[in-house]
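Lab notebook, bench 4. The sequencing result for the construct came back, and we need a structural model before the next group meeting so we can plan mutations. Quick request posted to the team channel:

Model the 3D structure of this chain.
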Amino acid sequence: MKLPTQEIPNSHRLLVIAGAFVCAAVAIYLISARTAGDRSISAELAARRAAAALPSPYLPVRGGPSGFVSSETCKECHPKEHASWWQSHHRQMTQVMTTNSVKANFDRVALVSNGERFTMQHNGSSFWVDVEDLDEIAAAKATNGRPTPPLRLPMEMVTGSHYFQVFWLPGGFGNMQIGFPFTWLVQEKRWVERHHAFIRDPNGGPGRESWNQVCIRCHATGARPMPDQQNQRFNTHVTELGIACEACHGPAERHVTLQRQKPQPLASPARTPLPNGTADGEGKRKPDLAIVQPKDLDHVRSSQVCGFCHSMKWFTDQEGWKENGFRFRPGDDLETTTPIIRPTQLDKQPWLTNVLAKAPEIMNDFFWPDGMIRVAGREFNGLIESACYQRGKMGCISCHSMHQGPPDKQLKKNMESNEACFQCHADFRGKLQSHTHHQAESSGSLCYNCHMPYSAYGLLRGIRSHQIEKPDVKVSLRSGRPNACNQCHLDKTLEWTALRLTEWFNQPPPDLSADDRAISATVKQLIAGDAGQRALAAASMGWESALAASGRNWEGAVLAQALNDPYPAVRFIAGRSLGRLPGFAKFVYDFEWPSDKLENSKRDAAALWQQQSAGKTIRRTPKNFFNPDQQSMRAQ
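Done. Here's the predicted structure in token form:
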């Protein structure tokens, strides 16, 4: 699919830089009693100019909790490990903006939203944005006056490098950083409105985001937000930006001191003791290197190192993290400091009942109805609900490695194959085809395609579940999440899947509605599911394995219907999947177009599909699918 010349629609009010936005952010994040009232754009710009003039530093101050020494110190003795970490996306979670770290286009790009024009510019590694009020410019022009000069704000910090780059602006209250209203999509090489990259209420407008209180938790090492309520400012400190050595190995000051006192290393850094000084596998006591090596921890504690960030966890101000940083250290029991939110274990987490009563959106937004996590970046929530973790010894580092895999997914060698599962399930090597009922070399015989389907959403794509499960139509009916079979066999109904699972694995047949017996499960979710279901269904229709199994010359009729979905993220994914189908590579579409152009695109895409399909036999057409003309389901 071909993108048109970029045009950002002027469709909603952005409160983004100081003014009412900053006052509201301070009220939220400093837990102030004040609230912000509505202001005109001109009043906001005046407040912004005042905020920009404050002589406070913009970036977090170097200085985390006691005991942290930074990755530069680790590099002295571990240059190889430092080099592999340096290439990782973890290191690039948050960075100072330079010509090396910024992938976005800052060559005088002007973006307009809600009556404001944002012009991004740079000179070497200095980046800034000029903000102008278009109504103010028009009023000045009408009276032959001169508009107020643009507000120039420095941009010095960026989060992300893999799929998105999110940028931050000085909030004017100490070194508070607030979200810039546009996000750079790395692969697509384009700017989009920031809130369009997430599944959020399309009528709600952009969210209010402060890096110092939210993103800092998992995008910096040794982080201390340090809000000063009395002076209404932040004095945020970090050991360093990004996820660095001590996030996984713990504070290294004592380790460095011990090593520097010895003429020779005590032992190979790879052989680090457990925190309690237990013996190694040969019964010999390992030397105390005062550093944690995750691979020497058991699968629970090693996974908790990752789970500190990759989970939905609970903590309160009693943790004292805003001033001193989180108490958790690698090797500790995560449950004693910041317990994981587990909707499946409400009886063991009585505190969660009160939390959900006050904030029921936690369940609706982050979990499927049966308690499985449904958002990306929270893989630990899925892992700990898996039998492989509960009854076996599977952990994060069973498949992943910071230093031994490529940056993209950080998988160890052969871990994108069935070797990942054969580590524990070696008996399936010789009976793979009889177990999967698919050809041994096909995508249907890849363990993770059946047991780790794309049931989480994030980053404008489907993300594999890390809760290891088996396909079960009853679970799909109960939870609403897509099952692995229908996610690959896009043209099949839930009845078709239930019959195979009954035949192959003796699963009791479920009670099915007439729709579930007659309508493709994926088509049904794309047309009638909630926003998350629609996003995953649209993503599946662009997945090569699914297209190979289901045919690729009927999906265009269905994806066309999603091109004017009320949720921008769903529209984006549908447009991307449509562009991967035959005949649509040059179809011009932009998910941020105004509603009238989106409606036209929907009709044009449906017409193009009908034109291409005329007189052709459409292989593997789903039993029922959406009729672009009649706006209803029809039998084929």
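The longest strand covers residues 177-185.
Will bring this to the meeting.
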